[in-house]
Structures are given as structure tokens and as C-alpha cells.
Specification:
The complex is a heterodimer of chains A (about 110) and B (about 110). Chain A has no helices and nine strands. Chain A starts with 8 loop residues before the first strand and ends with a strand. In chain A, a hairpin with a 4-residue loop joins strand 5 and strand 6. In chain A, the strands form two sheets. Chain A has a five-stranded mixed sheet with strand order 1-9-8-3-4, with no helix packed on it. In chain A, strands 2-7-6-5 form a four-stranded antiparallel sheet, with no helix packed on it. Chain A is globular. Chain A has about 110 residues and is mostly beta strands. By secondary structure, chain B is mostly beta strands. Helices cover about 0% and strands about 50% of the residues of chain B. In chain B, the strands form two sheets. In chain B, strands 2, 4, 5, 6, 9, 10 and 11 form a seven-stranded mixed sheet that branches. A four-stranded antiparallel sheet of chain B has the order 1-3-8-7, with no helix packed on it. In chain B, a hairpin with an 8-residue loop joins strand 9 and strand 10. Classes of the chains: A mainly beta (about 110), B mainly beta (about 110). Chains A and B meet through strand 4 of A and strand 4, strand 5, strand 9 and strand 10 of B.
């Protein structure tokens, strides 16, 4: 699975949009971009994933650049409960190992 | 459905003792995964099952680590002769093979070896 690069930490004001970037310049054509987050003392939580089209669900939006070398997770109206570590992961769907390879993630702090 | 359940939530053990953790996945999920997470790091994959078959175990950290899923439902992770370096959060996750929306993780078992 391709390696990802994320900023170590970010701050965001409550009620504002949080834009979390991820670089995955070596992504292959069949690799998806997944986002998970981990709130303190809990297991990681799936947020969203996509292949090449932008995606939106009730939690967030995922914007993938046309060359697929980077993506941005957008939390449109961040709340204090969105404070967490956000992980960007790229992986082949259905590969034999089927594991998620987590990097260090971005620690997002939402401030009042 | 209450999600993925892990027990115990916390375990303190003396070095050299054996410990066993249990994971109850979401009932209709046929895949089950174990991860380990040390402080400040992302989770690290250990092993996974499809039904009762353990399809990947090369990432288990040593031969002191073993996992079972005897009936394709709950799973156990055992660590024998624990060492202080085994102190970590042990996470379990489950998924359905054909689902394309990611895994569901439990809240983990925090192990402290003293």
C-alpha cells in the first residue's frame, strides 16, 4: 500500500471548516483513499473513502485531486467533539492482506 | 447491534504472566482483525481471520502472540510470558468481505505490564 504524508497537527475554530490535507504521491490506480479518526481512548472510526471522484457523507467530504496524488478531508462545521487524530490511508480494495496501514495521522484540535 | 466489543477494557499484569483478550465482532461480519497501538503511534496490524481461518499471521510480533477464532464468531488474542514492551492498546476490528465502507473498531484493551 502507498505511503501517505500528513501534517502532525492542526487547529481549527469551532464552527469553521476543518480542511485536513494528505499527500499520497505514489498512489496506484487501484488504490482507494480512506480516512479514519480516533478520538481519545477509543478505537479508530471510519469516516469516508474514495477512488477518484469527490465523496460526501453525513460526516465529511473528501476531495481528491485529478492526478490523485493528494486529497483533503473537509469537516464543514467542526465541533469540539471532532477533536481527534485523523488518519489518511491508501489501500487496494480486496488485496490479500486486507490490512489498514496507519501512519502517524494529524492531531486536530478544535478550539472554542 | 452494539458494535465490536472488547474485554477487558484494561488489564494490568506482572511480567512473565500470560494474558488473553476477547473480541466479539459485529455478528454478520465475517472478517476480524487485531491491531496493536503504542502511545503516540497509529495502530499496527497483527493478524486477521476470515470466518475461522487465520489468513495472515506473519505480522504477529513474536511467537509469544497467538490468536484464535474457533467458531468464526468471537476471537481471542493471547500473549504468553508478557514483557514490559507488550504494554499497549490492543484493538479489534471487524468487517464484511464485500462491504466497501471500512472496518468497525472496538474500543480496545489497554494492557499494562509491570
Amino acid at each position: 500500500d502507498a505511503k501517505t504524508t500528513q501534517p502532525t497537527s492542526m487547529d481549527c475554530a469551532e464552527g469553521r471548516a476543518a480542511n485536513l490535507p494528505c499527500n499520497h504521491s505514489t498512489i496506484s490506480g487501484n488504490e482507494y483513499v480512506y480516512w479514519y479518526r480516533q478520538i481519545h481512548s477509543q478505537g479508530p472510526q471510519y469516516i469516508i473513502h474514495g477512488l477518484k471522484n469527490n465523496e460526501t457523507n453525513e460526516m465529511a467530504s473528501l476531495i481528491i485531486t485529478e492526478d490523485r496524488k493528494s486529497s483533503t478531508l473537509i469537516l464543514p462545521h467542526a465541533t469540539l467533539r471532532d477533536t481527534a487524530v485523523y488518519y489518511c490511508i491508501v489501500r487496494v480494495e480486496g488485496n490479500a492482506g486486507n490490512m489498514l496501514t496507519f501512519g502517524g495521522g494529524t492531531r486536530l484540535m478544535v478550539k472554542p | 447491534d452494539t458494535g465490536v466489543s472488547q474485554n477487558p477494557r484494561h488489564k494490568i499484569t506482572k511480567r512473565g504472566q500470560n494474558v488473553t483478550f476477547r473480541c466479539d465482532p459485529i455478528s454478520e461480519h465475517n472478517r476480524l482483525y487485531w491491531y496493536r497501538q503504542t502511545l503516540g503511534q497509529g495502530p499496527e496490524f497483527l493478524t486477521y481471520f476470515q470466518n475461522e481461518a487465520q489468513l495472515e499471521k506473519s505480522r504477529l510480533l513474536s511467537d509469544r502472540f497467538s490468536a484464535e477464532r474457533p467458531k468464526g464468531s468471537f476471537s481471542t488474542l493471547e500473549i504468553q510470558r508478557t514483557e514490559q514492551g507488550d504494554s499497549a492498546m490492543y484493538l479489534c476490528a471487524s468487517s464484511f468481505t464485500l462491504a466497501n465502507y471500512g472496518y468497525t473498531f472496538g474500543s480496545g484493551t489497554r494492557l499494562t505490564v509491570v
